[in-house]
Amino acid sequence: MLVVSLESPRGDDVLTLLQQADDFALGLYPAENYHRLDIDDLEKADVGFYVAREDGEALGTAAIVDRRDGSAELKRMFVTASARGLGVGRALIGAVEEHARLRGITLIRLETGLPQTAAIALYERSGYRPIPAFGPYIGDPTSYCMEKSL
């Protein structure tokens, strides 16, 4: 059974998963175009860090960063290659959206990369729509930004 819950990003298996995410992204983009949160950022009070597990195995991660203005940003969304297409991404999105609703957040933004067509399709199926680049993504030719009103 798939379980998604708040966790520390410092668990050994979670650190391994985050490294897989970094390796995956750095295989697609130059380092200067990879906009990630590091471990210390993931532990800040305004961040909810979620891990999806099945039978105890970590299959995916997602973080939501409260921008303290009624909006939040979805970050560090990653699902292992073996778990893609099995509903793990949808479950992570559901968890971060519920996290946002419980905190009065009404808008979630995200940035992904143009090469990640499967991720873009997942976000579109989840109700996210393209928007102009925002914040640190302005001027990044690899960025593709989206948002959803809750």
Automatic annotation (TrEMBL):
Entries under InterPro entries matching the protein: Acyl_CoA_acyltransferase, Bact_Acetyltransf, GNAT_dom
Gene3D superfamilies assigned to the protein according to its UniProt record, in alphabetical order: 3.40.630.30
Signal sequence residues: none
Keywords assigned: Acyltransferase, Transferase
Any one GO molecular function term: acyltransferase activity, transferring groups other than amino-acyl groups
PROSITE patterns on file: GNAT
Top-rank taxon, per record: Bacteria
Protein name stated in the entry: Putative acetyltransferase
Lineage: Bacteria, Bacillati, Actinomycetota, Actinomycetes, Micrococcales
